[in-house]
Structure prediction request, 115 residues.
Amino acid sequence: MQSDNEAQTDDGEVRRIQNHNARMGIILFTIYLVLYGGFVFLNAFAADMMESTPFAGLNIAILYGFALIIGAFVMSLVYGALCRNPLHRPSSLPSHNSATSGSSSVDSVEQELKS
Prediction:
């Protein structure tokens, strides 16, 4: 069983991790927003430029659109790699010796998830 001080430390750690994850999401969202804004800006104010075909007969609108889709996928992978999950901390894993703890490891995990 955790003391109140340990629980507060764990809550603080969870909040710190959540703040880190939110900050990473905001940063990646801002990057994507700038890229998408560039796409919209070019379409609105330089439509003739979007019609040029620099590569394999594909116009810039198609290339930029595919780049946005691929970029969103890559950014989701980056987000997954940068973010931390507070439920998978090594300190929160139950002990495998259920004989000394008096409960099964499943019960320990359920208690940890409830708290």
The CA atoms of residues 17 and 84 lie 6 Å apart.
